[in-house]
Design brief:
It contains four helices and no strands. By secondary structure, the chain is mainly α.
Amino acid sequence: TLYKLKRYNSALAAFKSSIQINPADANNFLNLGNCYYWMKQYDSSIYYHNIALEKNIGNKETYNFLGSFSA
């Protein structure tokens, strides 16, 4: 995938398109947050990870990423 290839700008566009198709899918928000994290755009990363948590409160990966900001 674009994310695994570290093509984060292209991956962002794909995940945003996926959100428009299925806004209830927490994974798309999680993946957006992950892309922004690796691009060092931490405010955006936190924003999208928080949305992912609202949609799927038990997602451990989201907690791991958000926990890295407080370390």
